[in-house]
Specification:
The complex is a heterodimer of chains A (384) and B (270). Helix content of chain A is 73%, strand content 2%. Chain A has 16 helices and 4 strands. Chain B is built from 11 helices and 10 strands. The chains are: A mainly alpha (384), B alpha/beta (270).
């Protein structure tokens, strides 16, 4: 019953999820089981690249949930992603121990460099994996709760909300750039050695991280589907379309927005936590307002309000980005801007909408043929 | 204390004192007393006094800018007045409550422009409006029970949209949207229905059907209709209140009101 509700009515989602599930098994397998000389081998480099995009897809999913379904445009979701990443980065930094450049068993390298003599209070606990994982969820969740509570209670909506979220991520970026914050300043956290005792750059660890990213994406997708197919899902769509009507139906609109926003921020945080060990660094650049805008473009390109569209968008835009940044890096931003304009003008429902438009026109053609032309043509069309 | 209660609020607190039966022993269900609202010095409502009896059908008319919509905004919690009091029964002070609490407590409102959830089907529209637990967690994990679903079926028949139940509300005609919105109000099991211009833009036949519907609702609910269409008002009205410049000009039957020299002056110009 639950499976039927979550998946069977959602064909596009089922296709995308199957592909992700297939990749979750196949990619690590092809990487580990086949030698590098084999044509079937997937290089660790490509696997990590792919794994990174899986994290981005989870992030895009988080944005689609609030933007596509509830009409809350957040241009600061990169901040929650980065905070989740920092929580993971702090754990990984603590795991370095005395293997740092300065060999200090107590303090990370950058603190030794700054002549700090003890660990700041907010670093305590991060040597435990469970604590760091708790923070991956709590820190973005709590920030989203406080921020959302203030914004939604004052009934800040639409473009004003988008602007203050943009300010939020910008402010965090400036704060994290400061050395005195104790998060490694503009270098961020890097030079990680191992995670839960496994060497972080080892092929097996990479394969596991890839698998976990795909798993997180699948579970995140199912959780989002659960929300949007529940009664709550209809209510959030109603809030998007007719906020005051929803309020006069007796719903406390603010708390719906708030909890949806918090859930979305937590998803973003989890995505960030999976991203950091795969690329091996987290720095304040992740808070850059541009990142948050870019991820909104992913969702718009894929098609918002469908969930699986966000995944399609994250993959296609990032693939395009990989192509362009190797071919001619300086043109990428123009391409991104152009893409946004193009999607807004020509593809308001994104790539996913384009596919369903083709599907709709095909049977329509068949019908038209049935009316006008001879029977043979009809059967042919029907076969197609 | 404040922070804590705000936290509880965001989790969705149970509603205050609506559980107790409404105290209407003195007759009126809604007391609007000495209410004044000003916007930048303009007095939209000026010492307005209005009493709605339980189960009555009341029409409120008045020229543009008489304060009809502002009055509804005050009763439903959208606008807080500068002074005056608004009571639901004799015990519940509506000025202390927010919009969603007032709606849950039993005051339903239909907007001037028909407002339904266009992306959802007719059935889903009614489903959302159903009087059920409307806190976040419950809507995430529970679905409606059999009695509530039965109530939806009844309402579908009542508003004449049973055949359109799986149609998107956005595809309905203007008149059907108006009925759907009235149906959504009914799903809230309201004590008072505030209906703003229900027949605006309707054909003659649709207007007749709407009049029938509203008349059939009176008795079970108190119905307050704001309307411009005099013919429509005449066809349903028992008691008419005329608003002018933010306060009550006169009250009475349609005939009394229409022959009142003050009303004639307001409507036909000085």
């Amino acid at each position: 019953m639950l499976i039927q509700r979550l998946l069977l009515s959602d064909r596009g989602g089922m296709i995308v999820l199957s592909l992700v599930a297939l990749a979750a098994v196949l990619v690590p397998l092809l990487n580990l089981a086949f030698p590098e000389t084999s044509p079937l081998h997937v290089s660790t480099y490509n696997m990590t690249l792919f794994g990174r995009i899986l994290c981005f897809a989870l992030l895009a999913l988080a944005v689609d949930l609030i933007w596509g379904y509830c009409g809350i445009l957040s241009l600061g979701h990169g901040a929650f992603f980065a905070l989740g990443g920092y929580a993971m980065g702090m754990y990984l930094t603590r795991q370095i121990g005395s293997r740092g450049v300065y060999g200090n068993p107590e303090l990370p390298d950058f603190m030794v460099f700054l002549n700090w003599d003890s660990l700041p209070w907010y670093w305590h606990g991060f040597d435990h994996f469970w604590f760091a994982m708790l923070m991956v969820i709590l820190v973005p969740g709590l920030l989203a709760w406080v921020f959302g509570w203030l914004a939604f209670r004052s009934r800040v909506t639409g473009v004003y909300f988008a602007i203050i979220t943009q300010a939020l991520t910008y402010a965090l970026m400036l704060a994290f750039f400061r050395n005195a914050m104790g998060f490694g300043g503009n270098n961020g956290l890097t030079d990680f050695k191992d995670i839960l005792g496994f060497p972080i750059t080892a092929q097996g660890t990479r394969a596991t991280l890839f698998f976990l990213s795909a798993l997180a994406l699948i579970l995140g997708y199912l959780a989002c589907r659960y929300i949007v197919t529940s009664r709550m899902g209809k209510i959030i769509v109603s809030i998007r379309d007719a906020e005051s009507r929803t309020r006069f139906c007796g719903y406390q609109v603010e708390s719906y927005k708030l909890w949806l926003f918090v859930f979305s921020a937590v998803l973003a945080g989890v995505a960030g936590a999976l991203y950091v060990p795969q690329i091996g660094i987290i720095n304040p650049g992740e808070f850059s307002p541009l990142n948050s805008i870019e991820l909104v473009v992913w969702v718009a390109t894929g098609g918002r309000g469908t969930l699986f569209g966000a995944i399609v968008g994250a993959f296609s835009v990032n693939y395009l980005k990989t192509l362009f940044t190797t071919w001619s890096p300086e043109t990428w931003l123009f391409v991104l801007g152009g893409l946004f304009v193009l999607v807004t003008l020509v593809l308001p429902k994104g790539l996913v909408g384009l596919i369903s438009r083709f599907k709709k026109t095909a049977p329509a053609k068949a019908e038209a043929a049935a009316v006008t032309s001879e029977p043979e043509a009809v059967t042919e069309e029907a076969k197609v | 204390m404040n922070i804590l209660s705000q936290v509880r609020r965001s989790l969705g607190q149970p509603d205050p004192n609506f559980g107790a039966p409404l105290d209407t022993t003195h007759g009126p269900i809604l007391y609007v007393e000495d209410v004044t609202v000003s916007f930048d010095g303009f007095r939209a409502l000026n010492n307005l006094n209005l009493y709605i009896d339980e189960g009555e059908l009341r029409c409120i008319i008045g020229p543009n800018g008489a304060g009809k919509t502002t009055m509804m905004d005050v009763i439903t919690g959208k606008t807080k007045p500068d002074s005056g009091s608004v009571f639901f029964g004799q015990q519940i002070n509506l000025l202390e409550l927010s919009e969603h609490q007032i709606a849950r407590g039993g005051i339903g409102r239909k907007f001037q422009k028909p407002t339904v959830f266009e992306a959802l089907t007719v059935y889903e529209n009614l489903e959302l409006a159903t009087a059920a637990d409307k806190r976040v967690w419950w809507t995430l994990t529970r679905s409606l029970n059999a009695a509530q679903r039965y109530q939806i079926e009844e309402t579908l028949v009542l508003i004449g949209l049973a055949d359109q139940r799986h149609q998107n509300a956005g595809a309905l005609s203007h008149g059907q949207k108006q009925w759907l919105e009235i149906g959504m109000l009914l799903m809230q099991s309201p004590r008072v229905l505030l209906v703003d211009e229900p027949v605006a833009g309707m054909t003659g036949e649709e207007t007749e059907k709407t009049a029938e519907l509203l008349v059939s609702l009176a008795g079970k609910h108190s119905v307050v209709v704001v309307e411009h269409d005099m013919k429509f008002v005449r066809s349903i009205a028992r008691k008419v209140t005329v608003l002018h410049q933010g306060s009550v000009l006169t009250e009475g039957t349609m005939d009394q009101v229409q022959n009142d020299p003050k009303v004639i002056e307001v409507y036909l110009g000085e």
